[in-house]
Structures
1.
Amino acid sequence: MSARIGDSPRRADGPPKVRGDFAYSSDLKAGGMLWGATVRSPHPYARILAIDTTEARALPGVLAVLTHLDVPGRKLYGLEIQDQPVLAMDVVRCWGEAVALVAADHPEHARRAAQLVRVTYEVLEPLTDPERALTDDAPRLHPGGNITRYVKIRHGDQKARADVVVNGEYEIGMQDQAPLGPESGLAIPDSAGGVDLHVATQWLHVDRDQLAGILSLPPDKVRLRLAGVGGAFGAREDLSMQAHACLLALRTGRPVKMSYSRPESFVGHVHRHPGKLIYEHGATREGKLVYVKARVLLDGGAYASSSTAVIANACCFAVGPYECPNATVDGWVVYTNNPPCGAMRGFGSVQNCYAHEAQMDKLAAALGMDPVELRKRNAMKTGSRLITGQVVEGSAPVAELLDRIKKMPLPSPLPPQGAGLGRGARKVDLTQLPGGVSNTTHGEGVVRGVGYAVGFKNVGYSEGFDDYSTARVRLSVVNGRPRAEVHTAAAEVGQGLVTVQAQIAATELGVSDVVVLDADTQVGSAGSSSASRQTYVTGGAVKAACEAVRERVLALAQSEIGGSTGARLESDAVVSSRGEVMVTLGTLLGDAVIEETREFRPRRTHRLDSETGQADAHLQYAFAAHRAVVDVDIELGLVRVVELATAQDVGKAINPQAVEGQLEGGAAQGLGLAVMEEIQVKDGVIRNASFTDYLLPTILDMPPVRMDILELGDPHSPYGLKGVGEPPTISSGPAIVAAIRAATGRPITRVPVRPHDIVDT
Amino acid sequence: MNGRPRVAEDVWEGTNLLGVLREHMDLPGSKNACEQGECGSCSVYLDGRLVCACLVLAGQAQGRDIRTVEGLASAGVLHPVQEAFLEAGAVQCGFCTPGLVVATHDLLTRTPQPTTMEIREALAGNICRCTGYAKIIDAVHLAASRMRP
């Protein structure tokens, strides 16, 4: 592939994916392979009195049954706080918690054996109300109490008063990432007590390090290789089956595969935090924000996962991309016996965007001002200060994004009411109406609304977390032609990272043959495919390694054929500043191999001050704005999203087609939370753990997305790029809810919006 | 199976067609995303009709004509539908792709020049979590234009 940055080549992993022979983690096999199954708790909170594995062990085909007693190393794991048992010990804290493991020669034998593991529980009253978790009368679910993290931001004058004040309370439901590929992988033991794990994950090295501790093995005896990943969106940041498959493989001495069913997947990964947000906005009569007070409460569920970072985001960006001189933010994320929550695309900025954007619309109404105009008057720009005190560097085109979506053409208007009724009625296309072919309306009771929202978040890790990636680049001559091999541990989860790495290498080395090797732990850590960071950080590492290779090639050319200032690599050759080929790489290199490994570390960030929440805590910000057009059947409470429009600053589009794919796909997940998707939890139990009952947007639900992609650069990042993946999921949903409010005149303070939020029942 | 008779041995009675394809026929292209007929990731032809392989019991498939995503490309040359999915950027993680490719193949066999609404109707049983569907619609139009007789 010779495509360079700014091109949109076909994905390198595309042909096997369309043929059906791309090897996803759930497709893997090995000779003599066993199947693993997990025994899970039927209670959200219970004491374990006894575990009897006798019957399960006696079942034909069963090779091993393991409990926490069989975990040789660390019994607890977790991304930030090690609080989650590999297998439950004395207590289970959530429904579906893993209690025991089975390995058998057939998946059905494993499943039946799992049912025969007898666990005696003393059922406890679950703590399911996050408000109650804050109080002293709640049971303490973990030794340190129930507050996983409290974030306090005090910015500016805490006693500031304003001419106009609006208040609101908002509630966000629990969303599932619902990647189509199930949690799955294959663990293969070696003869020296080590293990190779082929797995779908977002971060090979953090899995490896956690596994080494759990298995009590040195890290070099735990080797991970990325299997095909069927989507991630945050769901693959924590361990799921990794430790379990390795434990079973090391115990039985045989390869063990685990692959979750869809219902098991719903308890196999963390979800987006549900939240309650209470806001007060104060502004001048001219519409300038004076202060924002916010109280944010996120339900972290039974285990911490990445909750401490999610609540930081929810608080740091609580005001939205606006200038606000005074802010008071208090945020808590708490333990409950609900399903554990952690990373999902947007990571804390999705929850607060619903609140701050509803507040901005409310404020505009109180001021009698156009909502877009109010936003523009307060829009953050380069040099603005966040409520954490950090000055915004690089582009921050909030007003411009709003201008652009406002100016985009609107879809054709609704036909007049009743046009589809009575004699002489025009033929109505039901698919264009709320309710669709259910034939619930021919246009009567349907009202159109238009809404706007803008949001932002950090790119990369924040608060001093060591953010870096590693790339090894090797240039050699294969069959007379130069070939560049790029090796990183970065997880391709569908976003197109493999293609982008090849584009960067082709650009930097001027070679047409670039091969991106499979990601594994034989090279240094790349960090996670999350936080919209991989093109920035791993892209930066690939660029740095290529530059080091290029320097050596040019030095070699200098010594072999003499100097030429301004020589560069292009079209598989060393080219002079006048564009003449000085020597081909094939001739210059011969049998030589030039290999360089580089770590790329963006500048450091700093932890929030615990009393004021002030710090230069973030690396980069990414901004997007959305306009939504909806039709609402106000008699039945049905919503059809007619169109989404978005403008986003991506700094520099390394692969424009992949950027568009992120904008469209991210908006679909935003639409899902706004009007469709919610994990229904009752008394700590998930009631809709299937794709029949958890509603994902289909091709009929998702409207066209008008896009305006700005490339305004960034002074610090490679090529001036910005993270792209998450902003589309932040403001798309709030724009839809704003449009529903505009259509119905109702406050709508909870998402996902349900029919009974629109219609009195 | 994709034009050739195949025999699967030792199939547990409760296995569905998807399990036979994936575990006994070495045809893992049909995917296991929901296993209850909601997501379309395991779409295959059964006697020329589009079905979810997860909803067909293995025994029901005995002696019948099955065509999977692996049977669409011929002699290493991608089918125009597969080409169009690649070119339009309709593939991200790709887990839904085999099912969508088969469902699109079926649509274009029945309706060679579908409207956007016909495409939406025909693919409503195929869930994609990555793309937001826009580039899938582009891909179907592109394939239709290339396959025009």
2.
Amino acid sequence: MIRTGTRYRLLALFVLPALLVYGGFAVYPLLSSVALSFFDSDNGGSFAGLGNYIYLFTDPYVSERFWNALRNSVLFFGIHLVVELPIGLLMAALLTSNSIRRSRGVYRTLLFIPATLSVVIVGFLWRLIINPLWGLVSFPLLGDAATALPTISLMSVWQYIGIPMIFLFTALIAIPNDILEASRIDGARAWATFWQIKFPLILPQFGLITILTYIWTFNGFDIVYALNGSAPGPNYSTDILGTMFYRTFFGSSGQVADTDLGATIASVVFFIILVTTAAYFVVLQRRLKTYEL
Amino acid sequence: MTTVPFKQRRVRLQKGEAASATLVHALLIVFAIVAILPILVVVMNSFKTTMGIFGAPFAIPSAETFNLDGYKNVFTRGNFAANYANSIIVTVATIAATIALATGAAWALVEYKVRISPLLTGFFIIGIMLPIRLGTVPIIKMMVATGLIDTLAALVLVYTAMQLPLAIALMMTYFRSVPTELKEAARMDGAGEFRTLSIALPLVRPGIAAVASITMLPVWNDLWFPLILAPSKANQTVTLGVQQFVGQFQSDYPALLAALTLGALPLIVLFTVFSRQFIQGLSAGYGK
């Protein structure tokens, strides 16, 4: 056994490099960004209190953009929630079926391939396929404010569906065989076995992938930017929090760059994610854990 | 008397199983077609003339429509060789740094238990959920202050920070499975702690492979940080290069499709080769 003092020294020696990089380039920037949102860099960096937040929520133009982006981010997540997660679960359930055991690996790899593409490729690929001039649909899905964001969301679902699939597949095959054997002897049908036994057992993992999807979609930026740039139209109908943050911080053709407001938007998004995630873990995940084996 | 119904039941069960296998295959094939066909359409059309693309977008290249002009244009007008080199440098350096730092940290967090170990572990693990991107404003300020702005090193630092939490979580699960006897025997023989770690390393090789494969995808495919931290022509990664190329050559469809194909293929190939490690990494890293 190594002495306590030595253990502290060894821990410091081995952990410090990782701690410095992670602390310096991940944790510190996030906290510093929150700090920045309370200052006014145009006024020589004076303390602004909640000034930036008040401006964000009350300025007629800025607040309209913000609420619009927030609504769009909620819709972007909502479509992932009702399309990606259920279909991902179905794919995972199909993959665990014993009757296809030998081709399982092939299907798993094929179904995951879209997730290996970059959003740039996914965006342009689908834009070509749904191009009204020569593509599969004659309606300009991306050109209409009502269909543009749902269309982009579905492109993102197409790309990332492999992630919940793999996640839930791993959870499903980890269920001990004797539990399933018992239900088979009881004569339960596959459908009933799935909903009454398997699904309750993987609920904690289903909850976790739901919250991760929430975090990822609220941080969304790439696919919208790749398709529509930083002032995503038509008429901001595809503007989500990530694109609004980018546009505010870097400026665009119609807007001058504003560092403080950018940091403020980033902080608001961070708070939204933090509060929701914390609430989820305190209220739900703990309750789900009680089912765990 | 009793054997007959039993036999019947068995036959029916087998039939049911065969039917369900067919149904499962059918559904999975439909899903696989939806996943793969759009990619195939792009790859296929990248080998066609503009006329061939517009005339019959879903036909395979024929003798008249086959054409490599798209690829020629990409290589002469685009900056692909340099972009590839940048992406490879950034991805490989990030993987190496992540493995080195995460292995050390995970080893120490599992091996040298002191009162603050759980706290330190929690501090790292929480990073799996932290949206690092929201710290972009201070990251830029830091990179400008240190002169690292618009260098590949800036990308490597940020990506390593971003990937460390998941990598540490993953390596910890592997280090926990290294038998205590092995480590104690090494220490008895007078091995120092670095030597003991190097004796344990071969046992966690699957973990290292898993870290490498889950680090590869988000780093290679990221658009946000290359756009912000290394946007100049000399430092563009493939993802950013493709983004700019398709922005500039909107009407040159063969070149556009060739650029998309060149951007997509390396990772599809790598993923297909390393899919087992990748899947293992994804499930072990988040699952714990």
3.
Amino acid sequence: MPFTNEQLERYSRHIILKEIGVKGQKKIMNGSVLIIGAGGLGAPAALYLAAAGVGKIGIADADVVDLSNLQRQVIHTTADIGRPKVESAAETMRAINPDVEVETYHEFITSDNIMDIIRDYDFVLDGTDNFSAKFLINDACVMADKPFSHAGILRFKGQLMTVIPHESPCYRCVFKTMPPKDAIPTCRQAGVIGAMAGVIGSLQALEAVKFLTGSGDLLTGKLLTFDALTMKFHTINLPPRGEGCAVCSDHPEITELIDYEQPVCEFKPGQN
Amino acid sequence: MRITVSGENKEVKDGITISELIEQENVETPEYVSVSVNEEFEQRANFDTKQLKEGDVVEFLYFMGGGR
């Protein structure tokens, strides 16, 4: 399908880039991205991916918008308090760009549903706020050979990595096992600077667009860290994929998905 | 000898190991911290034996579970 005049104008700043052009914009419009978590990381990522014209965007989150979310979750507004985050996020995305098909999943991602949900997407973006979800997303994406972006934020720091399963190292290659409950502070306990979610979530959106268009080098085999207090980015080279990894080595120990125990505080409705 | 730890110049004893540095720096959640030396990821199995050299650049990488 040729572009409409409106699309040519809407995406003109993409089309003019030699790394994207008409072909790249078509790839974006034929592409699909699943965002798990409609919060700090998911919000900016969803805004930019919708604005970029990604053909289909899935957004998964079981929670409702809470007043304490609004310091960083910029896709929701004060009027959205109490509404399911996926509804509020979908409404904003559709308002930004009616071209985009938005699919909502108002549920927790678990070992029972994750495979069915990720199947329909080209790329997955982890915007969750707990380790059980991060390990589950990693393991499921590795098992399904689904490329994804992992990210985490805390206080004034953030980090991310892109995983092409069975080609580049996965999250578990680096962070071997789930830390015990309460061993690591959460954003709720330790805080997070709002714009950090914007920086890291936007980097995740960039990786998704680069993946869809095939432009540049993905952040694979590397962990990018950002410290806002020193304003320093570091890119750490990771060990090769699979060496002793429990899930992505050629002879994995983990062959079934695991639902680790969720920290209890994550389940209190309306408090996230 | 002088090394750089989390962006800061530090004087440490010659041949200090990663484990000793983690202890000395009072790193938060030392059991779960990951470490890079000169932008290369170091395996935890080497923390006790890997000796740092003059001018090495060390970063502590933490589990970050936040996102929402």
